[in-house]
Specification:
- The strands form 3 sheets. Strands 1, 2, 3, 4, 5, 6, 7, 8 and 9 form a 9-stranded antiparallel beta sheet that branches. A 5-stranded mixed beta sheet has the order 10-11-13-12-16, sandwiched between helices.
- It is an alpha+beta fold.
- It has 19 helices and 16 strands.
- It folds into 4 domains: 24-181, Thiol:disulfide interchange protein DsbD, N-terminal domain (Immunoglobulin-like); 205-393, no CATH class; 396-511, no CATH class; 530-677, Glutaredoxin.
- Strand 1 (24-32) and strand 2 (37-46) form a beta hairpin.
- The chain is 45% helix and 17% strand.
- The two termini are 23 Å apart.
- It is globular, with a radius of gyration of 31 Å.
- Keywords: Cytochrome c-type biogenesis, Membrane, Signal, Transmembrane, Transmembrane helix.
- Residues 207-420 form the Cytochrome C biogenesis protein transmembrane domain.
Length: 678
C-alpha cells in the first residue's frame, strides 16, 4: 500500500510539474513627450501566485535574480534617470534572512529616453528576469522587447537581439530604483486578483485563524482576577430584574461590539494609506516598540504594578450606566471593559502586536478584536441565559493570580520575537538563534519553577497549594524547556519552526563545535572536479563530469536542477536533505549533480548556440542547464529531481519529481531509484 501511495504521489507530481511554465505576459508601449523625448513603458501581467523580482537588490548579494533591462543601439539615444517601477513591494523572507523586492500579479516599468538620432523607428531591449511561486522557480529568462517610436514601422526581425549580440554590441543596463525607496509589502493586496477563489480562501483561512486565536485569548482573560469575580456579580444583577436575561445577552453582545469598535479607526488609517499596516509588519522600530510594550505588560502581570484606566473616566462611564435601557446596558459593558483593563490591556496589546505583524491589515485587526470580544463577552450572555451554570464555576482564589502570571510569562517570551524581527531586518546580530533559544529556555524553565511553587511573586499567597492542573501545566513547561535546550547547540527544533531566527543567522550555523568541511579538512576524499555542497555532500556542478564519475564508482546519478536564487531549493536542502536518512543516501549511494539554471557565467563564444526547443540563444552556463532540463524533461521549474544511470538514461519505473517537502516520500523515491539501478 505504501509503495502504491509513493507511486501515485510521484505520478501526480509529474503531472503537475511536467510542463514548460510561462506565467508572465509582457507588453510595451511608448508615450511621446516631444519630438526627441519619449517614455518607454513595459508592463507584465503575472499569473496569480507567481512573483517577478525588482531591479533593486538588498544589502546582501543574494536572493532572487533581480530584473534587468538591457538597451541596444544606445548611440542613437540616451537613458534619462532611473527605470521607474510601479507595483513592487518589499517583504522579509526568512530563508534569505533579508527583504526581497518583488511584484505580484502586475509590474510596470517606465524609462525616459532622449533621442540623438531622430530618424530611428524602434528601440530593442532585452528584459532579463526570474519568476517564482510558492513551490518552484523558473530559470532566469530573457524577453525581447520592441518599443516602436513610429507606429508605421516595418516588422522588426524576431532575432534582432541575437543580431546585436552576434555583432559584438554590448548593451547598456538601465538603472533601477534604490532598495530603500521600495515600501514594505506595498501594493500587494491592491494588485490581488479579485476573481481568485484560491486567494480568497487563503485570506479567509488566515482571518479565521486570527479570530480563533484571539477567541482563546479572550477566554483566558476571563480567568484573571480583574474579570472572573465580575461574572457572578454582573449576572446576579441582571437576573434580579424584569427582562434581565435579555439585558444580560445584550451586555455580552455590547462587550463584543466595543472591542470591534476599537478596530474601526484603523480602517480609516488604512484608507488614508493602504501601505500603513504593511509598513507596520516589517518596520524594525515598531517591532522594538512592541518589544518594550510586551516587557512592560509582562512585568505588570508579574505583579510589579497595575496598568489601569483613570478613575475619573471610569466614574463618568459608571454614572452613565444608571440611565437604564439599552444605553445603560451599553455603558455597563463599557465600565467592565475599562475596569478590567489592568488584565485585558496586556492581552489586547498582544493581539494588536501579533495582528500588526501579519499582512492582514485592518480587516485582520477587526477579526482579532471580534474574537477577543466574543471570548470575553459571550460567556456573560450565556450565564445570563443559564444562571444555574454559575454553580459549576470554581471559587475565586490564588489560581486567578496564577493565570495572570502564566500570561505574563507568555508575554515575556513573545516579546523577544518582536526584538528578533527587528534584529533580523537590521542585521544587528544581537539576538542570533542561540541567544533567542537560550532566552526561551530560561523563560519557560522559570515558568515551570513558578508553577511548581519554587518561585514566589508579589501577589502569591504564602502557603498556596499546588493543584493537579497547575502541576501538569508545570510539567508541560519543563518538558518544553528541555526540548528547546539542544537547539542552543544546533538542533533543528521543528516544533517552533519560524519563531527563532534561521540556523544561518547564528554563531554556529553547523552546530556548536562544527564548521563546514573543506577539501583540506574533510574526511571524505574529494574527487576531481567535485566540491563540498550543502551538508558537506560531495557534488558536481557539470553534467558530463558527474556522469563520468558515476561510471567510475558505479552509482546512479541524482540530477538536481536548482538555482542560486531558488527559495524552495533551499528549503529542500535545509529541511529534507538535512534529515539523517536522506543525508546518508545522498552521501553514500548516489552521485549528486547540481545544475544551477541561473548561473551567469558566460559560455565561450564557440559553445553558444540557439536552442532547438525554445529558439532562444544559449549564452550562459545557466542557459545550458535550463535548456537541458526543458529538452530532456519538458519542464522548466526548479527544484526538479531526476534519477539516471551513469549514461544519463532515466531509471526505468522511476519518475522525476519536483518540490517534495515530505521526507518519507522523498526517501522512498531515492531508495526506489537506488534499487532500480542495482
Amino acid at each position: 500500500m505504501r509503495k502504491l501511495f509513493i507511486a501515485l504521489t510521484a505520478l501526480i507530481s509529474l503531472q503537475l510539474t511536467a510542463q514548460v511554465e510561462d506565467p508572465t505576459d509582457w507588453t510595451t508601449s511608448v508615450e511621446k513627450i516631444s519630438d526627441t523625448e519619449y517614455i518607454l513603458i513595459t508592463e507584465a501581467n503575472i499569473e496569480p501566485g507567481w512573483h517577478v523580482y525588482s531591479q533593486a537588490k538588498g544589502e546582501k548579494d543574494e536572493g532572487p535574480v533581480a530584473t534587468e533591462f538591457n538597451f541596444f543601439g544606445t548611440e542613437d539615444f540616451e537613458l534619462v534617470g532611473i527605470n521607474k517601477e510601479t507595483g513592487t513591494y518589499a517583504e522579509y523572507v526568512e530563508i534569505w534572512g533579508m527583504d526581497v523586492y518583488q511584484f505580484a500579479n502586475f509590474a510596470r516599468f517606465e524609462q525616459k529616453i532622449v533621442l540623438n538620432n531622430p530618424d530611428i523607428k524602434y528601440i530593442a531591449v532585452e528584459a532579463y528576469f526570474m519568476v517564482c511561486d510558492d513551490t518552484q522557480c523558473l530559470p532566469p529568462s530573457p524577453e525581447s522587447l520592441i518599443f516602436k517610436l513610429d507606429e508605421n514601422v516595418d516588422v522588426v526581425p524576431d532575432d534582432i537581439i541575437n543580431a546585436f549580440y552576434d555583432a559584438g554590441e554590448e548593451p547598456i543596463k538601465a538603472t533601477g530604483p534604490e532598495a530603500g525607496s521600495i515600501k514594505k509589502k506595498g501594493d500587494k493586496h491592491e494588485k490581488k486578483d479579485l476573481d481568485s477563489d484560491e486567494g480568497d480562501e487563503e485570506d479567509n483561512k488566515s482571518l479565521w485563524t486570527i479570530f480563533l486565536g484571539c477567541l482563546i485569548a479572550g477566554i483566558l482573560t476571563l480567568a484573571t482576577p480583574c474579570v472572573f469575580p465580575m461574572i457572578p456579580m454582573t449576572v446576579s444583577f441582571f437576573t434580579k430584574q424584569a427582562g434581565g436575561k435579555l439585558q444580560g445577552i445584550l451586555y455580552g453582545v455590547f462587550i463584543l461590539l466595543i472591542y470591534v469598535l476599537f478596530s474601526l479607526p484603523f480602517h480609516l488609517f488604512e484608507s488614508v494609506s493602504p501601505d500603513i499596516f504593511n509598513e507596520f509588519s516589517t518596520n524594525p522600530w515598531l517591532n522594538i516598540f512592541f518589544f518594550v510594550v510586551f516587557i512592560i505588560f509582562a512585568i505588570s502581570f508579574f505583579g510589579a504594578f497595575e496598568i489601569t484606566m483613570p478613575n475619573s473616566l471610569i466614574n463618568k462611564v459608571d454614572k452613565a450606566s444608571n440611565v437604564g435601557g439599552l444605553i445603560g446596558v451599553f455603558f455597563m459593558a463599557l465600565t467592565l471593559v475599562l475596569v478590567s483593563f489592568s488584565c485585558t490591556g496586556p492581552v489586547i496589546g498582544a493581539v494588536l502586536g501579533s495582528v500588526l505583524s501579519t499582512d492582514g491589515g485592518a480587516t485582520a485587526l477587526t477579526a482579532g478584536m471580534a474574537g477577543f470580544g466574543f471570548g470575553l463577552g459571550i460567556p456573560f450572555a450565556l450565564f445570563a441565559i443559564f444562571p444555574s451554570w454559575m454553580n459549576s464555576l470554581p471559587k475565586s482564589g490564588g489560581w486567578l493570580n496564577t493565570v495572570k502570571v502564566f500570561l505574563g510569562f507568555l508575554e515575556l517570551a513573545f516579546a523577544f520575537k518582536f526584538l528578533s524581527n527587528a534584529d533580523l531586518v537590521m542585521q544587528w546580530h544581537w539576538i542570533e538563534r542561540e541567544i533567542f533559544i537560550a532566552i526561551w529556555v530560561a523563560v519557560f524553565g522559570a515558568l515551570a519553577l513558578y508553577l511548581f511553587g519554587k518561585i514566589k511573586l508579589p501577589h502569591d499567597g504564602p502557603d498556596q497549594n499546588i493543584s493537579v492542573g497547575r502541576m501538569l501545566l508545570g510539567l508541560c513547561s519543563l518538558v518544553f524547556s528541555l526540548y528547546l535546550l539542544p537547539g542552543i547547540w544546533g538542533a533543528p527544533l521543528k516544533l517552533i519552526s519560524g519563531f527563532p531566527p534561521p540556523s544561518t543567522y547564528s554563531e554556529s550555523p553547523y552546530g556548536v563545535g562544527y564548521k563546514k568541511a573543506s577539501g583540506a579538512t574533510a574526511a571524505v576524499e574529494l574527487p576531481e572536479h567535485a566540491h563540498f555542497a550543502v551538508h558537506d555532500i560531495v557534488a558536481f556542478d557539470d553534467y558530463e563530469e558527474g556522469l563520468a564519475y558515476a561510471k567510475k564508482v558505479k552509482k546512479p546519478v541524482l540530477i538536481d536542477f536548482t538555482g542560486w536564487a531558488c527559495v524552495n531549493c533551499r528549503k529542500m536542502e535545509e529541511r529534507v536533505w538535512a534529515e539523517p536518512q536522506i543525508l546518508s543516501i545522498l552521501k553514500r549511494d548516489i552521485v549528486l549533480v547540481s545544475l544551477y539554471v541561473d548561473e551567469k557565467k558566460a559560455l565561450p563564444k564557440e559553445d553558444q548556440y540557439t536552442s532547438e526547443v525554445t529558439q532562444k540563444r544559449i549564452r550562459s552556463v545557466g542557459n545550458k542547464w535550463s535548456d537541458l532540463q526543458i529538452s530532456k524533461y519538458q519542464v522548466n521549474a526548479q527544484p526538479y529531481y531526476a534519477l539516471v544511470d551513469e549514461n544519463g538514461n532515466d531509471l526505468k519505473g522511476v519518475e522525476q519529481i519536483g518540490y517534495t517537502p515530505d521526507v518519507d516520500v522523498y526517501e522512498q523515491w531515492l531508495k526506489e531509484g537506488v534499487k532500480k539501478y542495482k
